[in-house]
Amino acid sequence: MPLDTATRNSLAELVRTAGYERRAEPFQLSSGGWSHDYVDGKFAVATGPALRQASEALVALLGDRFDSVGGPTMGADALAHGVAIVAGCSWFSVRKEPKGHGRQAWVEGARLGPGDRVVMVEDVVSTGASLLRAAEKVTDLGATVVAASALLDRSPRVVERFRAAGVAWAPLLTWEDLGIEPL
Asked: Dihedral through CA 92, CA 157, CA 65, CA 9, nearest 10?
């Protein structure tokens, strides 16, 4: 279900005031793209009220069709934890490499397996590559990715990448909501 206009506008204002910076000189993003627009999604939701606002919006957007929520560690952690609290589900984080001892797991937090319906999240997405890599680790465990989302989608190409992977893509905000140039 799409977000109502008031919720979308309120989230956009939150990100603009708490996580956006226009830089005079272009800089390179981790995705390899260049931009004058820096968006720090982690900082935007670094307070309890801001994280609750984003988490409640995500649950309203996706409904209750999932058992667990998570994504690449750091980019997904705050939002995954917030959504887990609001939705009453479990959370997980996907490491960049497996842990070197213990279970040597790629996925920490919830123990995912067959039958688990998961939502993949991240704070800011430019290409979707890291979120799709994390989704592969989750499906390797037998879980089913029912949807993916982000606080902010910076590129019109992201929806196509998720469509090609067979994953429903439903970001809370896009570049258009912030009035910035897409990547």
From this structure: 100
Q: How far, in Å, CA of 80 to CA of 9, rounded?
A: 22
Q: How far apart are CA 125 and CA 106, in angstroms?
A: 21
Pairing of strands 90-94, 68-72: parallel
| Burial class of residue 171 (count of CB atoms within 10 Å of its CB; 0-12, 13-18, 19+) | buried
Per CATH, domain 5-175 is 3.40.50.2020: yes
pLDDT single digits (tens) 46-59: 999 999 999 999 99
- Six-digit token pair at 89? 């589900």
Q: Which phi and psi angles does 99 have, rounded to 5°?
A: -60, 140
CB 84 within 8 A of CB 78: no
**For 67-100, what is each residue's pLDDT tens digit?**
999 999 999 999 999 999 999 999 999 999 987 7
Domain extent listing, the chain: 5-175
Question: Cα separation of 30 and 116, whole Å?
Answer: 30
pLDDT score, position 57: 98
Both tokens assigned to 78: 């705050």
